[in-house]
Amino acid sequence: MLENRQEFKQVHEEIMAVNSRIDRTIGALGARWWLNAERSFRDALAEILEQSSGVKVVNVDEPDDEETVFGRPDRVELDVVIHNGVLILIEIKSSIDKAGMYIFERKVRFYEHRHGRTVQQLIVISPMVEPQAREVSKQLGIKLYADSVEVPVQTVRSP
């Protein structure tokens, strides 16, 4: 009986180790998929906006040597949309939490300081938003699109 318990315990530990490796592998695959999905969505959105609305979409990737965004030297990446002189900064994320909202706001201030321009609209697009991030977005004046039903749709009729 004692031998069966020890054998069962050993088999259970082996199963749990395999389960842990599978979880890590799936997590890594999911992270890689989300990175590619973000890039695809960003590129498609830029193309659609530029062709249909006449807006200019620029992906900014600049060094932050003054350590203003992350507290250490790093690169700051933002999507910039300019339409009729209105400057809009967009963050597209697979998921975002409270800290991510604050980081986006610091990225915006970094951009304003570096380029000497005022941003009129801040937008975050993410399908997975933590509840605290929603509150922070309201406090910081960040427009949040977390679900397709939140996107206003205008019907265009043919003449």
Task: Tell me the CATH topology.
Answer: Trna Endonuclease, Chain: A, domain 1
One letter per element, helices H and strands E, the order comes to HEEEEHEEHE
* CATH architectural designation: 3-Layer(aba) Sandwich
Sheet-strand content, in percent, reads 15-25%
Helix content: 40-55%
Whole-number mean pLDDT = 81
Shape: elongated
Poorly predicted spans: none
Q: What is the end-to-end distance?
A: 84 Å
- Rg of Cα set: 22 Å
SS field, number of helical segments: 3
DSSP strand tally: 7
What does this structure look like?
The protein is an alpha/beta fold. It has a single domain, classed as 3-Layer(aba) Sandwich (Trna Endonuclease, Chain: A, domain 1), CATH 3.40.1350. It has 3 helices and 7 strands, in the order H-E-E-E-E-H-E-E-H-E. It has helices spanning 2-53, 98-115, 131-140, and strands spanning 56-64, 74-83, 86-92, 95-96, 121-125, 128-129, 142-145. It has a 5-stranded mixed beta sheet with strand order 1-2-3-5-7, with helices on both faces. It has a two-stranded parallel sheet with strand order 4-6. A hairpin with a 2-residue loop joins strand 2 (74-83) and strand 3. Helix 2 runs parallel beside helix 3 (131-140). It is elongated, with a radius of gyration of 22 Å. It starts with a helix and ends in a 14-residue tail after the last strand. The model has no long low-confidence stretch (mean pLDDT 81).
